[in-house]
Amino acid sequence: MRDKKLKRVKSCIIRKVIPAFTLGIILLFSCETDAKIIEKIVAIVNGDIITLSELREISVPYLEKMKLKFSLESDEEQIKEIERRILDQLIDEKLVKQEADRLEIVVDDKEVDLAVRDVMSNNNIAKEQFEQVLLEEGLTFEDYRKQLKDQMQKMRLLDLEIKSKIQITEKEVEKYYKENMDDYNTPPEVSIQQILLIIPSKASEQEINQIREKANGILQKIREGEDFTSMVKLYSQDANAAIGGVMGAFRQGELLPALNKVAFSLEVNEVSSVIQTSRGFHIIRVLDKRERQKMTKEEKWNEIENFLYNQKFENEFQQWVKKIRKRSYVKISL
């Protein structure tokens, strides 16, 4: 339980300190790497510099994660492109911080104290545990406070320069809903229970026929009035047999094709014929069905409004930071 709490707090720390300025942002706290990195300047942003080690502290663990998740190949051009995107994010961070300083946007220590207390209170964690989590992330308590203060300053700037100017009208919500109505339909679902007789991997044609005959015999008993659940417990070889063969709810396409077609064609309490799949012979019974449901505009209003707001914010941020770049000295040496 304690480990789960600390893991949750780590996630909260990252979210609290580094809110995403752009939808694609991938900035994380520095991670230790064994690779030896030459201290080279990869970008100059007005009077500030970004070093290769700063870039690699983010890009190396990110690339490793992507390799695991998406089987990313170690293609040199692809890696360079990813590093360039990360560097662009770091440059944007520098420009936003510099702009906040130029406009003399201030966050005082009391506000930072309150924000830190909120994190600890919301996660029901003592300061000693909190400091332990920070150390595991490579941060001291003072490091965290400084980074949090910087981020609060940047977010205050973005509130002033961008967020306060964004409005989402009723017409925009209605238009988006009409254009994307299918996305707000709840797909049909079917709940089933099954009897499964498994076909062994090296079964002969004769053995398969014997299993088919047994399945047909079970089906005949059900049609003559035997209880389906009792037949499950007597004959089914599926892992769910102990709980009456109940499989739960499935959406269109989630079952094996042969089962999917039959399941969605049956009525509630109707029993199928014997169905053969790669797993074996199935007899299914429909326990419940839910037809496609259309979500109204009112039910999805807040979700659509938030989506449109974030979309506008992303676009406005990109335009705003582009203007700042034009009047700034930015030199990239990657």
CATH class of the largest domain: Mainly Alpha
Number of H/I helices: 11
Strand order of the largest sheet: 5-4-7-6
Instruction: State the share of residues found in helices, binned by percent.
Output: 40-55%
Structural notes for this entry:
The chain is of the alpha+beta class and 334 residues long. It has two domains: 2-168 and 303-332, Porin chaperone SurA, peptide-binding domain (Triger factor/SurA peptide-binding fold), CATH 1.10.4030.10; 186-291, Chitinase A, domain 3 (Roll). It is built from eleven helices and nine strands. A four-stranded antiparallel sheet has the order 5-4-7-6, with helices on both faces. Strands 2-1-9 form a three-stranded antiparallel sheet. A two-stranded antiparallel sheet has the order 3-8. The longest helix is centred in the first third of the chain and has 27 residues, at 76-102. Mean pLDDT is 84; it is low at 14-37.
